[in-house]
Amino acid sequence: MEPNYIAGTPYVGATVRYRPGPGGNLGVLTAWDPVRATARWTIKEPFPVWSGALATAGGLVFYGTMDGWFKAIDAKAGTLLWKFKTESGIISQPVSYRGPDGKQYIALLDGVGGWSGIALVAKLDPRDQSAGNGFAYPMAALSNATKKGGAVYVFALP
Amino acid sequence: MAMKRLLLPAIVLCAWFAAASCRREQRRFSEGPGASELHPDPLRASRSDQESLERYAKDAWAISEGQRLFSQMNCSGCHGHGGGGAMGPPLMDSQWLYGSGLSDIERTILAGSARGMPSFKDRLSPQQVWQLVAYVRSLSGHAPSAAAPVRDDHMSVRPPPSRTEPQPPTQQQVD
Questions:
Q1: Cα–Cα dist B97/B167, whole Å
Q2: A27-156 has which CATH code?
Q3: Taking CA atoms, which of A18, B60, B95, B112 is between 20 and 30 Å from A70?
Q4: Which pLDDT belongs to residue B48?
Q5: Who among B77, B93, B95 is closest to A9 (CB)?
Q6: Residues of B in contact with A133 (CB under 8 A)
């Protein structure tokens, strides 16, 4: 590699490839016990968990996956309570708010993208394992799992 | 005694092999005899631009030089090291935004694009641009098999252009 500084072009002196870690999954959601400094529970995901997690006072954890599943987890046990398939993949931060009617709502923005989603969004060629600075190759399956898009979803808690 | 007689020839032979292996992977990146035929003086060139582009696109040395420039000029930073794309569009597939012809690729390198590609007009000689055009064409499998690169200069990230099926070019709309 011989990188040159040329205005308007990336200055990257490396050819990068990515592989899934042991287990074959690219993502995992982990709940930490800060007192014992250990992981309380983990949930493996096929794709990187690019969304933020939202923990509510009612003992729920919400997060979204890049293949478009919005999930509610029991905060203590780590078990899946509910899931909802969105049109596109999720890389945003879910938020919780109290509506004017006094009820609690969960709002979520879907729409896949970002570095790990660039292979799908920009139609990169995964035959080149360095495409998308190395992320196109491990994310090739995402193109069959979801599509481009964008919408706001609001869910009411029971 | 037989061992002693063999010792000197054995040392000489080992030294010769060691010296020869130093040059085994050395590749020539300068113009050799006969190369001036490929690089006519642009001022006195009797050939048109199109003729030069077509000559370079069939020439193994020109394509190999283009491969070196592709990483040296940071083309690989946006288009991927094997042409699979990143911030910039892929160059190894069948889809083309600004034309797939040799002169279309030359124009894009010289002028850049409105969507972010800078102009390389003042950074490359006409010959270097033709070398880059030849390499870019080879990425989608359009170089003659005798001239197509069979391996990368560095870590291999894709099947080489020599093993890439020609991708039929289709024009895409710039959205």
A1: 15
A2: 2.40.128
A3: A18
A4: 73
A5: B77
A6: 86
pLDDT at B107 > cutoff 60: yes
Q: Is B154's Cβ below 8 Å from some Cβ in A?
A: yes
Write the DSSP assignment of B24-86 as a string of letters.
HT----S--TTGGGTS--TTT--S-HHHHHHHHHT-HHHHHHHHHHHHHTTHHHHH-TTS--S
Residue B34: per-residue pLDDT: 47
Q: Provide the 3-class DSSP secondary structure of residue A104.
A: strand
pLDDT tens string A3-31: 788 888 988 788 888 989 899 999 999 99
Contacts 24+ apart (CB under 8 A), B18-27: B27/B64
- Residues B71, A1: C-beta atoms closer than 8 Å: yes
What's the whole-model pTM score? 0.79
Decide: A39 and A33 in contact? Cβ < 8 Å.
yes
Q: What is the mean pLDDT of residues A57-62?
A: 96
Which residue from A145, A155, A158 is spatially nearest to A71, judged by alpha carbons?
A155
Task: Evaluate whether ipTM surpasses 0.90.
Answer: no
Q: Which domains does chain B have, with CATH numbers?
A: 47-171 (1.10.760.10)
Give the position of tokens 């950074």: B123
Tokens coding B110: 């010289």
Q: Are the CB atoms for B132 and B110 separated by under 8 Å? A: no
